[in-house]
């Protein structure tokens, strides 16, 4: 039930994005910048990767907002470490996709372990 509510919330957030004007932004950076790293350029040029970026940022923001204040710093540190992993993929689309899949699994694991009142 918890996972269903999370997925329903995420789907609603992502679904609302379909009605917003499209811009040159991925979820986490501006695609119109001229100094994009290789991984960022690959994400901007590849719609499925861009969609994974949107999903990851949406999930990260949702999970971060549900965590107690003391745990948010650790989640942010993990995100920073993950970004280095993604950047190491350079423009390798399969590598970037695997990085997103692994990060989304980790975020869902964190979500599943959040203590909730009965």
TrEMBL record:
InterPro entries: Lysozyme_Inhibitor_LprI. GO terms for cellular component: extracellular region. Residues 1-26 form the signal peptide. Keywords: Signal. This is Lysozyme inhibitor LprI N-terminal domain-containing protein. It comes from Rhizobium oryziradicis.
